[in-house]
Write a structure and sequence with these properties.
Rossmann fold; about 210 residues; 6 strands; globular
């Protein structure tokens, strides 16, 4: 068996601006694809002839379509619902300012809650990692040796980084993952190795 390298190019979807200052999580919100410079940069930097993976939320398919419109040849997406964003349960639809007014002011605000806190009716970030892991393994196994452009969500991409680096969930929340940024994580498999290599995180496409 030769060494097989599968390259995952993770892209966080374009900004959501129609949420009226509210937490949206898995709410199916549209995104703003007007940043022509960023999309042209993505079209230049992402590989041709890649597998395209999105979630079942429209902001990822809209982002993928905008990358294609900027000049990158893209196939029809493989839809992976298990790669969607964290479900924030009863917090979805709550205004951010109202949410934070009831929280500990000393809490780390890189994410809405500590990694193991489960919102009422939702899932924790740790739950998200547990959900995402089998989906990533399935995508890599199905498309071994290929380039995979995965247009997903901030939480999902942090989860992928946690899996690659063997991080505790709380530590993975320290990653910045900006809208339209590139995070590349390669899977490498050989007779003596089955591992991940992190090439870049949160690279600006411009």
């Amino acid at each position: 068996m030769t060494t097989v390298e599968t390259r995952m190019w993770w892209i966080r979807h374009a900004p959501v601006t129609a949420n009226n200052g509210c937490i949206y999580g898995q709410t199916d919100m549209p995104c703003d694809t007007d940043d022509a410079v960023a999309f042209e940069g993505l079209a230049r930097q992402l590989p041709d002839d890649a597998i395209l993976v999105t979630t079942n939320l429209q902001r990822t398919t809209q982002t993928a379509a905008a990358i294609a419109a900027a000049g990158l040849g893209m196939p029809e997406p493989v839809i992976e619902p298990e790669l969607r964003e964290q479900h924030f349960g009863d917090w979805q639809g709550m205004r951010y300012d109202e949410f934070w007014s009831d929280r500990d002011p000393d809490q780390n605000r890189f994410w809405l809650a500590p990694a193991h806190e489960r919102p009422p009716g939702g899932e924790s970030f740790a739950d998200l990692i547990t959900r995402v892991a089998p989906a990533i393994d399935r995508v890599v196994d199905t498309h071994a040796g290929r380039d995979i452009v995965a247009v997903a969500h901030g939480g999902t991409i942090r989860a992928a980084a946690a899996l690659a680096l063997g991080l505790e969930p709380e530590n993975a929340l320290r990653f910045a993952v900006d809208n339209l940024s590139i995070t590349r994580i390669d899977h490498v498999r050989s007779p003596t190795l089955d591992s991940w290599r992190v090439v870049c995180v949160n690279r600006d496409p411009r």
